[in-house]
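COMPLEX REQUEST
Ligand: arginine
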Amino acid sequence: MQDWFDLAKKMDSLVLEAAATAGLEDTFTADIRTADPRFGDLQANGALPYAKRNKANPRQIGQSIVDLLEKNEDLTSKVEITLSGPGFINFKFKADFLQDWLKTFSGSEQLKKAAAHLQENETVVVDYSSPNTAKQMHIGHLRSLIIGESICKLLAFCGAKVIRDNHIGDWGTAYGRLFYAYKRFLDEENLEANPLGELERLYKLGSKLATEDEEVVKESREELVKLQSEDPEAMALWEQVNGHSIDGIKRVYELFDISFDHYLGESFYRNMVEQVYKELEESGLGEESEGAWVVFHPEHKRYATQPFMYRKSDGASNYATTDLATMLYRAEHFKASSIIIETDFRQKDHFEQLELTTQKWFEKTGRTFPKFSHVFHGTIMGENGKAMASRTGEPVLLKDLIAESIERAEKIVREKNDEKIAKGQAALAEEEIVAAAKVIGTSSIRYAELSQNRTSDYVFAWDKLLSFEGNTAPYLLYAATRIKSIFRNFEAADLENLADKASNIETDEELALARKILGFVGVLQQTVETLRPHLLCTYLFELAGAYSSFYNANKVIVPEADIQSRRLMLCQRTLDVLETGLGLLGIPTLERM
Ligand code: ARG
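STATUS: Structure written out below.
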């Protein structure tokens, strides 16, 4: 089987072999990656860094390797080899190779098999969304949820065992005031209808009353003390409140079809903090500073003087303590080989310090430190250039955001449907309109999120994200339905075994599309390595573009059976990759829209 990864691996060893034959030292690395499409499909970039280290001419080094590779007939039958820039070695797949690949890689399962070794044997705990309890989910909660979920899907597709862990903030000081109000002013009906809304109302009410009345402050504090000392009655109430809170959070997740394996929030780790104190002190990492316990990192330019505080001067634990315990639990209990936490960029310092501290702590205690990534994101801006808010100045609630998106999508679908009717084309049935609006509405929000480089801020603009043109969900969904509509002209039997009936691809557009289709696995690799889903989005947008150029220039339905078969095969493979890729972004395709 012609496997892209096998080929990439083979390139790697062939380039290394050639480098050795050419007399280069073994510090030379091939550094195979996806190439700039103007030059080829794969590229070996190792000559430049090697030349820099050895004060040599990169072009000469590249040429010496190319000369040797050219002698390998097995290789030259598959690829054209060229040299560009400062010694980049480019490999461009020949038409036969592309054709073979298209024949072999049909369907999502095949693609999955090709990708499955990327994360083989990895167990990854992904901590995302992780909101604080008793608060409604709003636009500020969107990015972590959507990006985190896509990362989970990507990793699982690439063979990892993925554990979705929601590290909810469920053990804060807010509970005193919340309990005070909950006991006195609970509106049962509202709790049933909108749990998070009611809890948030009660918390705000408790806080307001506390500013007006000393007695409320006192009673709230007593509630909190009882909870922190794990008084059974307080714990029962806490469990009740928490249950309602998770219930409310899940209702929002359902709108996006997302569910978690675990809800191990901050409270779960409260009894592990003693172990953290003890181990950090005994290992000599922790030290007392002004009554608090901290870890300094002398090798770091900021954390040498700005320590990581894990025990406050009043003796209480904090966010750092529970996170240290969390790292330990994920490493030991889940046997995580990798831990990913997705939050906004403001927590960067916290997680950098957490990583440094845990690394040293594990090293001193003979534990293996898993790979750790803090995947962070920027802010969603409104069209006025400020952080996005609703008319009242409050952050927009996620459930309202989705409802609005679906409503807007429905309007667009109806308009398009009316156009179809006016042109005498087959119209959508009422249920189809409603179903399409739901998919387009939620997918547009998802895609707007995922298509942006996560580390940048982005402007949330309805017209843009719901547009049928440009790098948007509606554009890609529409591209998929267009391909499906071609297949509707055929009987199922006509669409089977196309590869056997197909002649070789040959037009420029066919070749360009085939190349793009084949690029999927490489893009997947890059996306998973960098944990940046926008790379996959950009690719899918380009794939749809390559398909469009192909479709506009090459008739699919033609009298020559072999040509028709190969073009239908290209349509099928495009759809496979498009559906697989969109699926990894959490976007299902539609039959019609
Ligand atoms: N609850 C936190 C917040 O709302 C995010 C938690 C992220 N995960 C963690 N292990 N600290 O900002």
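REMARKS: The first helix runs from residue 4 to 21. The longest strand covers residues 338-344.
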